[in-house]
Amino acid sequence: MTTYIFDGSLEGLLTAIFEFYERKPGPIRLVAQSHYEPQLLGETLEVTSDEAKSKRVWDGLKKKLPPDWLLRFYKAYLSEDPETFRQLFAFACYIFDHEKGAEQNFGHPAVLAVTQMDRSVNREKHRMKAFIRFQETADGIFYAGVEPDFNVLPLISNFFKNRYADQRWIIYDLKRKYGLYYDLETVTEIQLDYAPEMKPTTPLLPENALQDKEGLYALLWNDYFKSTNIPARKNMKLHIRHVPKRYWKFLTEKR
């Protein structure tokens, strides 16, 4: 069995599909470079991402799939899950090898896997919309550090651009070390070269980097949260199900 090694990008994944159909090597194993472990037996092929080849594959999928399934494919890719990468490869091959409508066969393992991962990524996207808490910095930028299970920043960009259209903000993924910056006009991807305080263990900005009134806002938010919390109706099991503990360090009301 030949192992196809790609760079982990969507372009690389689509290029691997192109190479498979061009070479027709028989069964293959797809693995991202970051997860590859050399083996004594078997051949390997290092797939070089190619914009033209990946576009041909994507255009081919557009002809075979409705728009909502193309979005599912993309969201499943954002999971960054090694097994999902392999399922996406199998899904694309299944779609290309069958007539239109094959995506409705949920009995096929790849179709089912893509559908389930799409739901998981969607759930994380909605949680990010609900649980992101901004802090206003001394220079008037609203900052929020996050650590999502999946790479969902591309999926929430428009939501926050529309919701907070009148203020500059940064949403920074501490796990993947990149973020979104909105400058009142456009949203761009950024990377912070030096951010010693922005770590997963300490996601909040230090007090000396914040607006003076930020502490008051946090206090008022905490007071509001406490006033609306009825102890007699406290159900921690239900609360944790809706607000998992891994999000608590990012929430103002949990400080």
In short:
This protein is of the alpha/beta class and 255 residues long. It has helices at residues 10-23, 51-64, 67-77, 82-96, 109-131, 153-163, 214-228, 236-242; strands at residues 2-6, 28-32, 44-46, 135-136, 142-146, 169-173, 178-182, 187-190. It is elongated and about 60 Å long.
Outline the structure in words.
- The chain is of the alpha/beta class and 255 residues long.
- The chain has eight helices and eight strands.
- The protein has a five-stranded mixed sheet, with helices on one face. A three-stranded parallel sheet has the order 2-1-3.
- Helix 6 (153-163) links the parallel strand 5 (142-146) and strand 6.
- The chain is elongated, with a radius of gyration of 22 Å.
- The model has no long low-confidence stretch (mean pLDDT 85).
